[in-house]
Amino acid sequence: MAGLTIRMERVKVYNLQVNRFQLYAIGSAGVLVHNSGGIRNVDPNVLRNPSSRPEVDPFKLAEYFKQHGRRPHNMEPIEVRIRPDGELEIMNGVTRAEWARICGENVPIVIQP
User: Does residue 47 contact residue 80 with C-beta atoms inside 8 Å?
Assistant: First the structure.
């Protein structure tokens, strides 16, 4: 690879295959991705809260525990974006991510453009 350019726009992309593999680790979290999109499960500790909401609302978190307890369940995917520094930032799902951190559960994520 000769270089890397980060663009915050939609561009045409191509399927890349190296040594028969089409999965790649991206960002400092090393999340495995494929160009087909879709849902992936990750350790919630690799997700960063957005600067607009750095803290979890304790009342909302308490209500989440009241509804779901500490058991795994079919959680709606957390929407994230890849920041320019390679970190995964939560766009929607700060409370769900904190619940998963406390319970020690992986979380489903969807990477948004």
Answer: yes
